[in-house]
Amino acid sequence: MRVLASLTQTESICTIDAGVNIMAVVLNAVAEEDGIEDSGDCVHIGDRLESLDKIAKKLGVKPLGDFVSVDASEWLSEEEEEELVPEGEGKAQWFSAKDGLKTVRALMGHLKEKPKVFKSSDKVLEDLLAYETALVLFEKKKTRWRIAVLD
User: Fold this and answer.
1) How many alpha carbons lie under 13 Å from residue 95 in its C-beta half-sphere?
2) Which of 17, 8, 93 shows the shortest CA–CA distance to 49?
3) Full-prediction pTM beyond 0.85?
């Protein structure tokens, strides 16, 4: 998969394929250090990110959307990057795995207590569990992380 876009603020996320089909966005938890397994394809969080962020704020933890970040070089050619991205910008931001775990675990706890928050809360929980598993590994390896948006 190719990294598609970067979102630095919480917002609804979707992609348009050839301007016609709306597709689910894959939001993976990835490590800064190469060679560490990521969360795998997490497709159930993207269209619920705005709602999850509202829940996170009510729970007093950092919104999940605040961890979304990509490097412009992952989705633009070198020529496009030079033309479109101001110098010194477009680099991925990396975050503490500990901070990510705090958010993910708070959201998981909330969805377990209130499983009817979403029609498919069980699928969202599966994705959050995949994030948690990846974040535990990232913390153990002492590497930072981010959420990458993939197509």
Assistant:
1) 23
2) 8
3) no
